[in-house]
Specification:
single chain; about 400 residues; 16 helices
């Protein structure tokens, strides 16, 4: 049931700033990779594993946190997640071995998972259908700023200290979210929709899995996100090594992708007044596949960075329309267990993204190999789109 058709801007910004925590945790320390590798005495590919392990652990955090938020409320799980994330970030700022770095990233990611899974559940508690898609899109507009500015923030922080300062910044940011959420989202506490009282975590997830019509949306999200994570994992190689760009140019080129995500998100909000979430979702998925084909062509023909960039911008930008519409369409099936449903989608998305990221580090260090993997993810998304169509003969959400 819809609680309100109009969500206050303060809540939208608070949820958007909270969503920014995830991209900050992944992208802010990217410029520090060479420094981390040198200080810890490991190869840069080993440092790249901290992205993969973060993906796996955030998946676990979402799986546990989603069911807990359905049972104990969003506030407890969200606050616990932020405190875990902050504590782990301060630990990471003092890490002196690759083992302690990996351990800290696991704990940080579990806290991040608790935090991330609470946001779509909070949205579904308030609105549904078209309004949910619009609210996801508005929150996304705020959150999109994070990956655009994260590498630049990391580069700036590195001028004032060693790489540990980047993790200290993440810890402070997480703590600052606590009072912000307290005076906005949780002002006048709102509990999740009433569900079966003592239902176990396992049963909650089994209930979600029994809704077969909704399941293609999970794979759909994971495939779209997986291709982008492969790019993030290889972005330093692509721009700094293959295209021989400077650290500052890398931050700028990385930010270009987010400009398109922002534009696609704005366009999405306008299109929602004329089209359904599912129609926009299908169009954006096709656009991402076209961009992937372009990138493969550029890589095989050894095109310049200026021919690679437009395709990459479209590939990343399409996710600005895919993600909010896919989440809204998926959660429509679960009015009473949105926390568990969001957790299952988040877990699959990050786990498969982590697998894609980890396996991609085994690829030959060539641009064609990376872009072919991104194309494979886009083709998988098209496959899940087709599967969703065959499973939904009844009324579409």
């Amino acid at each position: 049931m819809t609680h309100s058709q109009h969500t206050p801007l303060a809540i939208i910004f608070a949820l958007g700033f909270t969503m920014m925590l995830g991209p900050f945790a992944i992208d802010t320390y990217l410029p520090a990779f060479p420094d981390i590798a040198a200080d810890l005495g490991v190869d840069i590919n080993v440092v790249s594993l901290t992205i993969s392990i973060y993906m796996f652990a955030i998946a676990l955090g979402q799986l546990v946190g989603g069911a807990l938020s359905d049972r104990f409320g969003r506030r407890r799980v969200l606050v616990t997640g932020l405190l875990l994330f902050a504590g782990a970030s301060f630990f990471l700022s003092q890490a002196q071995t690759i083992e302690s770095l990996l351990l800290g990233r696991v704990i940080q990611a579990i806290g991040g998972g608790f935090t991330a899974v609470s946001i779509p559940a909070l949205v579904r508690d308030r609105v549904n259908g078209l309004q949910a898609a619009k609210l996801f899109s508005m929150i996304g507009l705020v959150a999109i700023v994070a990956p655009a500015i994260a590498p630049s923030i990391g580069t700036l922080l590195l001028r004032f200290g060693d790489w540990g300062i980047v993790f200290a910044f993440l810890g402070i940011y997480a703590l600052c979210l606590l009072p912000l959420l307290s005076v906005t989202v949780f002002k006048g506490p709102r509990r999740p929709p009433a569900g079966p009282g003592g239902i176990s975590m396992l049963k909650r997830y089994l209930e979600v899995l029994r809704e077969h019509r909704a399941l293609p949306h999970i794979g759909w999200q994971a495939a779209g996100f997986g291709g982008l994570i492969i790019f993030v994992t290889w972005s330093a190689f692509i721009y700094q090594l293959h295209y021989e760009q400077s650290r500052d140019a890398f931050a700028l080129l990385f930010a270009c992708n987010i400009v398109t995500m922002f534009c696609c998100n704005l366009l999405n909000r306008m299109l929602l007044n004329r089209l359904t979430s599912l129609q926009i979702l299908r169009g954006a998925t096709v656009a991402q596949a076209v961009a992937a084909i372009w990138l493969v062509g550029v890589a095989l023909l050894d095109g310049s960075v200026f021919t690679f960039l437009p395709g990459m911008m479209l590939y990343a930008g399409a996710l600005g329309a895919i993600s909010p519409n896919n989440q809204a369409s998926f959660l429509e099936y679960f009015p009473n267990s949105s926390g568990s449903a969001a957790a299952l989608m988040g877990t699959a998305t990050f786990a498969l993204g982590g697998i894609a990221s980890g396996l991609s580090t085994l690829l030959p260090q060539t641009l064609p190999a990376v872009t072919l993997c991104m194309l494979a993810c886009s083709l998988a998304a098209l496959g899940f789109m087709a599967l969703r169509g065959t499973r939904n003969h009844a009324t579409q959400p």
